[in-house]
Design brief:
The chain is of the alpha/beta class and about 350 residues long. It folds into 3 domains: about 200 residues, Rossmann fold, CATH 3.40.50.300; about 55 residues, no CATH class; about 60 residues, Arc Repressor Mutant, subunit A (Orthogonal Bundle). About 50% of the residues lie in helices and about 10% in strands. It contains 15 helices and 7 strands. The strands form 2 sheets. It has a 5-stranded parallel β-sheet, sandwiched between helices. Strands 6-7 form a two-stranded antiparallel sheet. The chain is globular and about 70 Å long. The two termini are about 25 Å apart. About 0% of the residues have low confidence.
C-alpha cells in the first residue's frame, strides 16, 4: 500500500494489539512447564483472527525466558498427507544442529526409534516388516524421551500450527503426549482454525477429549472490538485513522485483523471499500470445498444479499427440499452461513 506521496506504507501493525488475557494464559502454561508440570494449550479461532501473531509474540517471550522453542506447521496438500510433517519440521533443525558427540549421548534405542523421522541422529531404522503400532509406540516414546532430555536445560516450547490440517499420525502423537507426559519441562501450544471444523472433522472429538485432561488450556481468539481495531489501524498508519475509514473497515471486516489489513492495503485511495483478490480467493476456496448442493445454497444466499428464510431458499435455489436442507446444514456446519434467532440464514 502507498501513501499520497507514493511511499510504501506498512500493511500490518508492528504493535501487538489486545490479547492480554490470552497471552497471560500462555505465559501461565509456560510457567507450569518450567516447574516440571507439563502443560498444553490449544488455541482456536477463525482464519485471520490472529493465532499466528499471538503465537509469535509468545515465542519471543519464551525465548527471553531461555526456553527452547521448536516450531512445526501442518500443511494442506490437496488431500495428500505427510505423516508427522509438523514434528519433522520442529525437530529436524535441532537434530542437524547436534554434533556427533551430542547425538551419541542419546540412548541408542532412542536414536534407532527416531531414525525414520530424523536420520541425522545416526540411528538404525527399525525393520520395515515390524508391526505399525509397535513402531509408532516406540517412536512416540523416543520423541518424549528427546523432549525430556532437552528440558533438562530449561523449559521446551513445542508449537504446532494449523492442527486442523494434521494427518492422523500427528493427531495420535498429540494425544499420546498429553496423556503420557508426567514431569517433563514441556509446554505444547497448538493452533487450529475453528471455522474449518465441520461436524465430521476428526479434530472435534479429539479436542473434546483432551480438554478434560490435566494441564490442558483451551483458548479461543475472538475478533477485535472497535477499540482494538483502532489500535491496529494506528499501528499501520502511524497515526489515528479517520473515523469514517475506521468505521467502514470495522463494518466490513467485523473485527477480523487479517481482513482489516487486506481491505486497507487493497484500496488505492484508502477508503476501505474494495474487496482484495487475496480475501476473495480465501473465501471462494472455502466455498469450493463444499458439496454441489451446498454451493447452490450459498450462491442463492449471495444473490439475495440479505437474511433469507428456508422457504425462500427452496424457491430460488432450484434444489429439492431435501437437498436444500442438507446444503444449508453443511453450510452452517462449515461456518459459511449462520442462522439467526428468527430462523433466517445469512453469511457469517
Amino acid at each position: 500500500m502507498r501513501d499520497n506521496d507514493g511511499v510504501p506504507r506498512r500493511v500490518s501493525s508492528e504493535t501487538f494489539v489486545g490479547r492480554t488475557a490470552e497471552l497471560g494464559l500462555l505465559e501461565g502454561v509456560l510457567e507450569r512447564a518450567a516447574a516440571g508440570r507439563p502443560a498444553f494449550a490449544f488455541v482456536g479461532g477463525e482464519s485471520g483472527v490472529g493465532k499466528t501473531r499471538l503465537l509469535r509474540e509468545f515465542e519471543a517471550r519464551a525465548r527471553a525466558l531461555d526456553a527452547r522453542v521448536l516450531l512445526g506447521q501442518c500443511l494442506e496438500l490437496g488431500g495428500a498427507q505427510i505423516p508427522y510433517a509438523p514434528l519433522v519440521a520442529a525437530l529436524r533443525p535441532l537434530a542437524r544442529g547436534l554434533d556427533a558427540a551430542e547425538s551419541e549421548r542419546l540412548p541408542e534405542a532412542t536414536r534407532n526409534a527416531l531414525a525414520e523421522l530424523l536420520p541425522e541422529l545416526g540411528g538404525a531404522e527399525t525393520r520395515a516388516d515390524e508391526e505399525l503400532k509397535a513402531r509408532q509406540g516406540r517412536l512416540f516414546e523416543a520423541i518424549l524421551a528427546l523432549l525430556e532430555r532437552l528440558g533438562r536445560g530449561g523449559p521446551v516450547l513445542l508449537a504446532i500450527e494449523d492442527l486442523h490440517w494434521a494427518d492422523g499420525s500427528t493427531r495420535d502423537f498429540i494425544t499420546f503426549l498429553v496423556r503420557s507426559a508426567r514431569e517433563e519441562r514441556l509446554c505444547l501450544v497448538v493452533t487450529y482454525r475453528s471455522d474449518e471444523l465441520h461436524r465430521r472433522h476428526p479434530l472435534r472429538p479429539l479436542l473434546a477429549e483432551l480438554e478434560r485432561a490435566t494441564g490442558v488450556e483451551r483458548i479461543t481468539l475472538e475478533r477485535f472490538d472497535r477499540g482494538e481495531l483502532d489500535e491496529q489501524l494506528a499501528g499501520i498508519l502511524l497515526q489515528a485513522a479517520p473515523e469514517a475509514l475506521a468505521q467502514r473497515l470495522f463494518d466490513r471486516s467485523q473485527g477480523n485483523p487479517l481482513f482489516t489489513e487486506e481491505l486497507l492495503a487493497a484500496t488505492e485511495d484508502g477508503d476501505g471499500w474494495m474487496l482484495p483478490e487475496t480475501l476473495r480467493d480465501v473465501l471462494l476456496a472455502r466455498v469450493e470445498r463444499l458439496a454441489p448442493a451446498t454451493q447452490a445454497v450459498v450462491r442463492a444466499t449471495a444473490v439475495l444479499d440479505r437474511p433469507i428464510t428456508h422457504g425462500l431458499l427452496e424457491a430460488v435455489s432450484g434444489l429439492a427440499p431435501a437437498e436444500v436442507m442438507e446444503g444449508a446444514r453443511e453450510a452452517v456446519a462449515h461456518q459459511v452461513l449462520v442462522t439467526d434467532s428468527d430462523g433466517t440464514y445469512r453469511f457469517r
